[in-house]
Amino acid sequence: MNNRSMKFGIGISIVLVTCTWLAVSGFDDAMSYYLWADELMPQVEKYQDEQLRVAGFVVPGSIVNENGKLEFAIERNGTTIPVKYIGTNPVPDTFKDRANAVVEGTYNSAGYLEAHAIQAKCASKYESDEYSSAM
Questions:
Q1: Domain range spanning residue 118?
Q2: Do residues 80 and 37 touch, judged by C-beta distance below 8 A?
Q3: What number of helices (H) and strands (E) belong to the chain?
Q4: Computed from CA positions of residues 18, 23, 24, 28, in that sequence, does the dihedral angle turn out positive or negative?
Q5: 35-68 residues labelled b (16+ CB within 10 A) or e (exposed)
Q6: 51 shares its domain with 27
Q7: In whole angstroms, what separates CA 15 from the centre of its chain?
Q8: Are 3 and 53 in a shared domain?
Q9: ∠88-91-93 over CA atoms, to 5°?
Q10: Residue of 53, 68, 58, 134 whose CA lies nearest to 96
Q11: Residue 134: band (very low, low, confident or very high) from pLDDT cuts 50, 70, 90
Q12: Dist CA 98 CA 61 (whole Å)
């Protein structure tokens, strides 16, 4: 193998190793667990400080927005999780009491979910009246 071929082979190897490393590490960073509120709480220690997407319904009367800090709670099947929103994006218009919400963030040792993103839909728009009145 001549010198030029050896340099080319080493260069290609470096590029392949770098691309593989970036793909694997980027995948790990982007991965998050998707759980319902009542699925998270029984095994909260397992998911502590992990990137999560937690779904539930906004507890009526729990939304407090003071000094630009939004706090609320989500629940499902009687399990309630307090949430503090630290994101910078505006909250969706459909975010209100009883809305079906998905919050992205981490559950920390202080006992609440620190969310950096919120997705919400109004249950009354997408569910039957019977479902809405049950909430």
A1: 32-134
A2: yes
A3: 5, 7
A4: positive
A5: bbbbbbbeeeeebeeeebebbbbbbeeebeeeee
A6: no
A7: 33
A8: no
A9: 155
A10: 58
A11: very low
A12: 9
pTM over 0.90: no
Amino acid at 100: N
Q: Which of 86, 77, 121 is nearest to 102 (CA)?
A: 121
Q: Are residues 27 and 39 in the same domain?
A: no
How many domains is the chain built from? 2
SS3 38: helix
Map residue 39 onto helix, strand or coil.
helix
55/24 same-domain check: no
Structure tokens at 132: 């809405």
- Per-residue pLDDT at 129 exceeds 50: no
**Nearest in space to 120 (alpha carbons), one of 135, 98, 105:** 98
Over residues 43-70, the pLDDT tens digits come to 888 888 788 899 999 999 999 988 878 9
The set of residues, in sequence order, having a beta carbon less than 8 Å from that of 63 and lying 6+ positions away, is: 70, 71, 72, 95, 96, 97
